[in-house]
Amino acid sequence: MSQDNPIPQTDDLPTGIDLLHDPLLNQGTAFSEKARDKLGLRGLLPPKVFTQAEQAERVLENFNRKPNDLERYILMNALHERNTNLFYRVVTENLDKMMPIIYTPTVGEACQEYGHIFRQPRGLFITANDKGKIASILANWPTDNVRAIVVTDGERILGLGDLGINGMGIPVGKLSLYTACAGIAPSTTLPITLDVGTNTERYINDPLYLGLKQPRLRGEEYDELIEEFITAVQDRYPHTLIQFEDFANINAFRLLEKYRNRVCTFNDDVQGTASVTMSGVYSALRLTGGQLKDQKILFLGAGEAGIGIGDLIVSGMMEEGLTLEEARANCWFVDSRGLVVKSRDNLAHHKLAYAHDHPQMTDLLSAVEALKPTALIGVSGQPNTFTKEIVERMAEYNEKPMIFALSNPTSMAECTAEEAYTWSDGRAIFASGSPFDPVEYKGKTLVPGQGNNAYIFPGVGLGVIAIKSKHVTDEMFMAAAKSLAEQVSEDDLAMGRIYPPLQDIRKVSAIIATAVAEVAYKQGLATVPRPADLLGYIKSQMYDPAYEDLS
Length: 551
What we know:
Layout: H1 16-20, H2 33-38, H3 52-65, H4 69-82, H5 84-93, H6 95-102, H7 106-112, H8 114-117, E1 124-127, H9 134-139, E2 148-152, H10 169-182, E3 189-195, H11 201-204, H12 219-236, E4 241-244, H13 249-259, E5 265-267, H14 268-288, E6 297-300, H15 304-319, H16 324-328, E7 331-335, E8 338-339, H17 364-371, E9 375-378, H18 388-397, E10 402-405, H19 417-423, E11 429-432, E12 439-441, E13 444-446, E14 449-450, H20 457-466, H21 474-486, H22 490-494, H23 505-522, H24 534-540
Parallel strand pairs: 1-3, 2-3, 2-4, 4-5, 6-7, 6-9, 9-10, 10-11, 11-14
Antiparallel strand pairs: 7-8, 12-13
């Protein structure tokens, strides 16, 4: 196994029923005759020995029998808790089918129903009542070699809002993608939910809700809990990567700024979304023929995702020769009150850099007509906001308008792929956060790009973990964006696809990880001596779900 996580010697293995109940070691009916005798399994399993491939066929047969995606999610979750290697064998070989189930869009429904479909705890739950006890809670986790933590406080889950403890489905799903897409060993990952209450009445009134039924913790008490958590993680797992996930705007930006230069951490909603979107823009420019510095980008949504994308685009424009002010002047934002302009009062701090001198516009269509942007990027969590008239205007102003409807899950997308293509006469360069099927338009098959963060954060995590980087920097996310865009082929672009095929994602992640590691070495952040063959070293660190011989 990889990442300093070897399989125990057979003398140290659990035996009998205890072995069958260990999901990281259990092979079920694939245990060989020799292993069954040696490990006390004779009689505890049906007599026929199956290969892992045959077991995977059984899983897929049952998967396809399920009546809906939520039931498929439950099936796969149960498989993970029973036989982790088989879970990842099935997922990695069927990513197109599995990723929408184990992550967006199905994970959104699973989170909403978390208390009602709950089977077995997974990860750690730290509550507002655990102040002073977080170190002892972390000590309860059985693994000493945790290398990747995804943590949420459940306040801004996808585009669904405050789900409280139900948000645990997100760290679980994200870490599944770390393993499936980039080969981070599952035994080295730890999902954590900070239950600081919820302000959603639906859950407070739900008798099956599993979390604290109290208003959300705010202010100094909240900050003290986060500080204790970060300190406790550093004490037990000093080399681990901490990914902040689905925190609300009021906390996301300031926590990232507070801890990014102190520990190895990033916020995927801010930086991962920015990187995958930046990559999509770079790919789209290969179709339009323009330069980044000449683009005018209009965002619907001015939260952590939108501002994060804007900041990275500004960095890219500055690389092409623009000043900071010139680059920011090319990025415009529309929020719930309209166009972000200097004349508005009470603007949130994170929006001030993008507040330009311009008459106020109260709606997106007016802003599109006034600014005539080359790209429209939706990160609003508001469905159906890219209307027919708006897309038609974008197509009027641009031969190949960039229409990125990135809000998750699918039900929250600003428009569908079919709408974008139809309303633009097939000329839109479209990307979405959740998957859409290919669209047949005027005899041509158009394949929408899925601007899913899974193209970025697993590869970034792999690179950071493999060379034990002290920190995660914005330059790493820029390198990841460029690396991803470079892996889009001419054949992909010919179909309108601005991201590589999902089935290639492990190869894609290894190359991204190498680019990220190169930045770490350049910035003096790597603590592992640089290997002669960096890509080869990265690949050697990747987990393989094939069974080990335990006989």
